[in-house]
Amino acid sequence: MGVAPPPRVGKNFIMARWGYWLTGAIFCLVYQLAAVAQTVSYGAGSQESQLVSLERMWSEALVHRDSQALATMIADKFVNTEWNGEVSDRGKFLADIAEPKFDATSLTIQDVKVTLFSNVAVVIGTYHAKGGYQGKSYDHLGRFTDTWVFADARWQCVASHSSLLQK
Fold this sequence. Notes:
Elements: H1 11-63, H2 67-71, E1 74-81, E2 87-89, H3 90-98, E3 102-117, E4 120-133, E5 136-151, E6 154-164
Parallel strand pairs: 1-6
Antiparallel strand pairs: 1-2, 3-4, 4-5, 5-6
């Protein structure tokens, strides 16, 4: 009984081993890239859904005059341009919402579209608002454009603009 000779470690043996490893590495890389592509695609849709939800929560907060809820959605340097051209900063915007003279009875948004740019999003849509302000009733149909920035692990609105549509 003899001892078996050691396995041959020739050029073909090394190339076969290297080829298997390289093939496996390429397969793993392609698999991971496909997974990342799905994640990016899913993430974008998820961000769009989140922004549409924030817009709907914004509408609800306006109807309920919930300036605290709105304060969590807008940035410190927020600027708002109303349908009548009035421009307000964060403080004035929140104070106006809490003001008893402001009485929104309904606010619905439609045709909402989100365009993403890395950590910035532009959200456009139409709105229908009814209520009263300073004793005068209103029934507005208009368009809005909100600009959101993803900072501090959340979306924050930095600018909002609305304009009336002719009825």
